[in-house]
Amino acid sequence: MPETVIVGGGVVGAAAFHALAARGERVTLLERHRPGLGATAWSGGIVRVFHREPELGDRALEGWEFYREFARRTGEPAPFTPSGFLSLVGPEQADDARKETARIADRTPARWLDPGELAERFGAILADTTGGGVWEPQAGYLDPSDVVRGWVRAGQRAGGTLLAGTPVHGLSRTAGRVTGVRTARGELAADTVVLATGPATPALLTGWGIEHRLWLQTIQVDLRRPAAPVPGHPAFTDHLYETNGRPDPDSGGVFTGHPTGHRPGSEHTGELDPECTRRAGEAAARRLAWVADSRPEGGLRAAECHAPGELGAVGPLPGGPDGLLLATGFNGGGFKMAPWAAGEIVRRITGSR
User: Fold this and answer.
1) Cα 8–16–236 angle (5° rounding)?
2) In this predicted model, what pLDDT tens digit does every residue of 40-86 receive, in sequence order?
3) What is the 3-state secondary structure (H, E, C) of the chain?
4) Which pLDDT does position 250 carry in this prediction?
5) What is the pTM of this model?
6) Has residue 353 got a pLDDT over 60?
7) What is the model's pLDDT at position 176?
8) Phi and psi dihedrals of 286, rounded to 5?
9) Whole-angstrom Cα distance, residue 331 to residue 339?
10) Which of 134, 168, 249, 274 makes an SS bond possible with 50, Cβ 3.0 to 4.6 Å?
11) CA-CA distance, 32 to 40, in Å (whole number)?
12) What pLDDT is attached to residue 128?
């Protein structure tokens, strides 16, 4: 039976590992540290459906349906925390958002809220309700560590092999085709190699002499503590002021993010940037009423892998060697897209025979 090697034990690699093993495929997962310790550890674990791009909405819907039944589908615990999700738009974006909400409403309880309804439902939280928003009451989040561990354990039970603490030093190739990977443990043969290495991907491909169009973008998420508790605060994204975040029950604060505009030279981004914190606070205050009286209390800063467009890089690398598949470049949305990406990897591998 053909062998698949997945490089990278984050949420996307773990999802693909389980999906292939559950189908009876021979699959080995290689992780340079321990599964879930890379970019996945910084994820908010948010699961929601609405996107302005319908194809992204369809992919996210696969994730929403899978994660809500994670324990049944994997036999592993990963509690789903319902928080609701609010997608806020500007007036010029409202018509398209309303139409997309109607399209997905038959499979997920998404509801369009016009400015008046938005003010009535979330007026205590929002400083600006113009434009309207999409409310997903059953959206929420999971602990990414629980999810990765669950997928890996379920994949191992189904016959998959995990090799942790095993960085990949290079690809083995014959006549322009990838035939395996080289590691400190020796060469591991494979019919297909799946690169699910998140922010490490651009440097790996460049180091192996493979042309690509991927790049890194720095993300920074600040933990803000309101002057007074904000009960019922949903997870959110704001397409007008470009902010996003979710509540953090452990601290009583709210994580808020805003584009940094920074492309780091490596996956190591350093400490929080005070200027990014300032800009993020200003942007969030334009939409969220409580932010003006809040204070930042630390946060997270990391790199994420980007690909051209919004759909990520899942499948063969254009112009790359045969036998190599990518599963990366989700522009920060890899967690919610992981179930779809895993299914696409399965389709690519099993459909090519």
Assistant:
1) 85
2) 777 889 999 999 999 999 999 999 999 999 999 999 999 998 899 99
3) CCEEEEECCCHHHHHHHHHHHHCCCEEEEEECCCCCCCHHHHCCCEECCCCCCHHHHHHHHHHHHHHCCHHHHHCCCCCCEECCEEEECCHHHHHHHHHHHHHHCCCCCCEEECHHHHHHHHCCCECCCCCCEEEECCCEECCHHHHHHHHHHHHHHCCCEEEECCCEEEEEEECCEEEEEEECCEEEECCEEEECCHHHHHHHHHHCCCCCCCEEEEEEEEEEECCCCCCCCCEEEECCCCEEEEEECCCCEEEEECCCCCCCCCCCCCCCCHHHHHHHHHHHHCCECCHHHCEEEEEEEEEEEECCCCCCEEEECCCCCECEEEEECECCCHHHHHHHHHHHHHHHHHHCC
4) 87
5) 0.95
6) no
7) 86
8) -70, -20
9) 16
10) 134
11) 14
12) 95
Q: Which amino acid is at 60?
A: A
CB 110 within 8 A of CB 50: yes
Residues composing the chain:
353
Determine the Cα–Cα distance for residues 279 and 285; give it in Å rounded to an integer. 10
In tens, the pLDDT along 93-147 reads 999 999 999 999 988 999 999 999 999 999 999 999 999 999 999 999 999 999 9
